[in-house]
Amino acid sequence: MATLAGKFPTIWQPATIVSNDTDAQAKYQSIQSQIPNIQPKGTQPASLEGDFSNFTPTYPSSDPDCWWTYDQCTTPKLAGLPPDLAAVPEPDTLGYGFDDGPNCSHNAFYDYLTQNDQKATMFYIGSNVMNWPLEAQRALADGHEICVHTWSHRYMTSLTNDEVFAEFYYTVRMQAIQMVVGVTPTCWRPPFGDVDDRVRAIAHALGLRTIIWKYDSNDWREGTANITAADIDANYEALIARQQNGTFATEGVIMLTHELNNFTMSEAMKFYDQLKAAFKYIVPVGVATNQTQPYVETGYSLPSFDQYISGTTTISGGPSPTFGSTGATGSGSPSGSSSSGSATGTSSKGAAQKASFDGLGMLAAGATFVGVALKLLA
After folding, report:
1. Is the separation of the CB atoms in 130 and 136 below 8 Å?
2. Euclidean distance between CA atoms 181 and 73, whole angstroms
3. CA 187 – CA 206 distance, rounded (Å)
4. What stretch or stretches form a coiled coil here (predicted)?
5. Can you spell out the DSSP letters for 51-75?
6. Are 123 and 139 within 8 A, CB to CB?
């Protein structure tokens, strides 16, 4: 991978089009007519905290840009853009997935999923794929669905058009994931949920559908701002209680969880049996929506929802990785984080740290509602 570094942006920095990358430049120019005239929002401090304090006071309360961070908007105002996927259509169904991978030592967690014949949707960060290529390959080999979680895990609405493009392009379009894993995903999830119609338009032009969520485990917050493991347990338990009382009897739910560190993966394993007992079905997001062709490349298929719940959890293999081979190795623990499992204990090469919006502080312990409605501050 080191020999290819010059062909990619610097890892964990906001992506820009690499100098002399004529293919990327040509692709970017080809989608210009599809990008609306919507200005970037706020700023992106080095701490990765999204600072919208100078933007929200003058932003119209009508939310003309369908800005999720402001008002949890998932139906674009811009013509021609499909709605975000925020829930799954199948009742009593959990759309199962994990953000921020691949993790340098996720083998125990992936082994657990394999032992339970459970597939999931993995939202991979391009910088992590570059750091941990073998771990990324394992996801495909195990039959999981792979989606994009951008190059450097930034608030996407704060970036310029060319930066938004590069965050997608170098993660997916014939670049990191395609080069390492051998497939080109057609789905993505915005870090922090931060997306508006400008970002959606660029993603759509690159063949990516936007996936959000309606229920947040807040698992990544453990160990920050006095958030304890018991608080995260309570979030899982609240979701289970909602399923048991019929909340998802007509439409299933997508829960936000993370492949971030030892705690988040251990928590997923801890509650898996309870989730399985409560929900009628637990399936990857693509399966729940019958996205049987999840990649640009042909030859790899996901089962339909009916096939999956009938016991056919894997349909076919697919393209071979361009780089290396499968069979990642790592520690037996779910993650390479510190033994305490705190969110701050990740490897220096792990997922980007997350933070709340300036002036809002951390969400209350045990909170189950996703995001923060910045509209309240306007």
Report:
1. no
2. 33
3. 10
4. none
5. B-TTTGGGS-TT-TT--HHHH---S
6. no
Closest CA to 144 of 333, 283, 258: 283
d(CA 134, CA 3): 16
Angle at 353 between CA 185 and CA 49, to 5 degrees: 100
Q: Is the peptide bond before 57 cis (omega within 30 degrees of 0)?
A: no
Q: Which residues are catalytic?
A: 99, 258
pLDDT tens digit string along 220-255?
999 988 999 999 999 999 999 999 999 999 999 999
Cβ contact 305:252 at 8 Å: no
- Residue 176 identity: A
- DSSP label of 295: B
Q: What is the DSSP letter of 209?
A: E
Q: Model pTM?
A: 0.86
- Give the separation between CA 325 and CA 166, rounded to whole angstroms: 26
End-to-end CA distance of the chain: give it in Å, rounded.
46
Q: Is residue 253 a contact partner of residue 215, using CB atoms and an 8 Å limit?
A: yes
Q: What is the pLDDT of residue 104?
A: 86
Q: Please report the domains of the chain, with CATH numbers, ordered by start residue.
A: 48-350+363-377 (3.20.20.370)
Give the C-alpha separation, 366 to 230, whole Å. 8
